[in-house]
TrEMBL record:
GO cellular component: cytosol
Leader sequence residues: none
Similarity comment text for this entry: Belongs to the LysR transcriptional regulatory family.
Domain HTH lysR-type per the UniProt entry, residue ranges: 5-62
GO molecular function, one term: DNA-binding transcription factor activity
Protein name per the record: LysR family transcriptional regulator
InterPro entries per UniProt: HTH-type_LysR_regulators, LysR_HTH_N, LysR_subst-bd, WH-like_DNA-bd_sf, WH_DNA-bd_sf
Source organism, top-level taxon: Bacteria
Keywords: DNA-binding, Transcription, Transcription regulation
């Protein structure tokens, strides 16, 4: 028997099986009742059996309909999944991934991360957005990004958070402040001039919280947007700066040192996606690589003194 069953017919069948009502199923699928009924008749003709018992009061699956139901569900789910993946493929066969990262991740972790990812998945093109948490949340919400990664303190309905890795805050300083040593208490951090990040930074928010807890005043000779700017100022002795522990890659590019701050303050990093949206294999691969790098950062090395 040669079948000519199509997706329209299967979805019509599943809609009626779920609602037990032709009118409701037609409304849900944005079809006229006549068009939906025609699809069911075509399917029954192809299968050479009745799928529904119809009366003036009810619509019920026949024995054949109950047997066919799980098959139809599986076929439609498989086709929908395949279609979603194919829609992300360009004519050249290159899949496009739209990702966002907060600035410190983008400057310290992402270059090596993408290098490894492109080696493993050369047919996936990555579009990268480097922005603050609030902007990334908006772009994910508007479906302009497939996923965003960073420290997100603000939660929004409709977005799903997946924890990637914790980090701790550390103090970065130059030889001018070499008396700081390998460990420093939070109350002592505020004795030094602090190169501060902008108020949009989750790290700066944590620093402000600690200052309030300690009853201290933040001495900020400068407020900057970029990690590299802060590192350059620290290297020249204008002040000290607070950064997450995974930023060790940046420290090695400058003549600076790092000190543990105690009590330790954790800053959690998350993957943000639209709720109900499946990450897909490419996003999962990026996530796993990022987790590996954040859990196992490159060994810390102290740069030579200037």
């Amino acid at each position: 028997m040669n079948l000519n069953v199509n997706l329209r017919q299967l979805k019509a069948f599943l809609g009626v099986a779920e609602t037990c009502n032709f009118t409701k199923a037609a409304q849900q699928q944005h079809l006229s009742q006549a068009a939906l009924s025609a699809s069911i008749r075509e399917l029954e003709t192809q299968l050479r059996c009745r799928l529904f018992e119809r009366t003036t009061r009810s619509v019920e699956l026949t024995a054949a309909g109950r047997e066919f139901l799980p098959v139809a569900q599986q076929v439609v789910a498989l086709l929908d999944s395949s279609a979603a993946q194919l829609q992300r493929m360009g004519q050249s066969g290159v899949s496009r991934l739209r990702l966002g990262f907060t600035p410190i991740l983008a400057s310290n972790v992402v270059p090596g991360l993408l290098e490894e990812f492109q080696r493993r998945a050369p047919m996936v093109q990555v579009d990268l957005v480097d922005a603050g948490p609030a902007e990334l949340l908006e772009q994910v919400e508007a479906d302009r990004l497939d996923a965003a990664f960073g420290a997100f303190f603000q939660k929004r309905s409709g977005l799903a958070q997946t924890q990637i890795a914790p980090a701790t805050l550390m103090l970065v300083y130059s030889d001018q402040f070499s008396a700081i040593g390998d460990r420093i208490e939070w109350r002592q951090v505020f004795d030094y001039p602090l190169i501060a990040l902008t108020d949009r930074s989750p790290i700066q928010q944590l620093v402000r919280d600690k200052a309030r807890q300690e009853g201290a005043e933040i001495r900020s000779p400068m407020v900057v947007n970029q990690l590299d700017t802060a590192m350059g100022m620290v290297e020249r002795g204008f002040g000290v700066a607070v950064f997450p522990s995974f930023a060790q890659a940046a420290w090695r590019r400058y003549a600076v040192r790092a000190s543990e701050i105690y009590p330790a303050v954790s800053i959690d990093y998350f993957r943000i996606m639209k709720a109900g949206k499946e990450p897909g294999p490419a996003v999962e691969a990026i996530t796993q690589l990022l987790m590996q790098q954040l859990h196992h950062p490159a060994p810390s090395e102290r740069a030579p003194s200037a």
